[in-house]
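Good morning C.,

I know you're traveling, so I'll keep this short. The sequence:
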Amino acid sequence: MTGIRLYRPTDREAVADICVRTADDGADATGMLSDDAIWPTIFVLPYLERHPDLAFVVTDEDDVAIGYIVCAPETREFEDWFHDRWWPAHGAAWTAAGAAHDREAGLLRYAAERKAGAEPYGDTYPAHLHIDLLPAAQGQGWGRRLIDTLTTALRERGVSGLHLVAGAGNDGALAFYRRLGFVPVPSPEGAQAFARELRAR
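The tokens, ready to paste straight into the viewer:
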């Protein structure tokens, strides 16, 4: 039965696949990089490793993940861990081999340079998320429900704010976040960051 549930370790491969198939501003990025695994290793697998209790999936009738949301409740601590432990262990081979082209080089540079305090809105809105849905899960309200599920969990932990960064060219995502009450905040070139307070109801 289609629905939302907590992530399970058996979902890991499906979640990584969703990440790749939505990585190009919501479109399929398969084959875009020298190794498809670069995308999930940066944008979803570290969250599953460190905060599986804040990872939720939308499943199809066969209980296979077709969408997900992942989160770091404390961005500063997460980015330090990513920089000091995750990326040296999981990204060293790609860094040593060198990038196949400019976009890949930019992604690898971004991963290597992630650190606490790099995002100025991270202190006011300490949690951050990544959310992706395959076409089969889009346009049915699952994105809103995933974010509602996550924000409920964060409020229960006393987290005061949440932020995210989307590609500046992903018009559908930009409109979606605005509809859910996320407010645009100063952003790097080519991206748009959004933030939202999480006040107890």
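Safe travels,
E.
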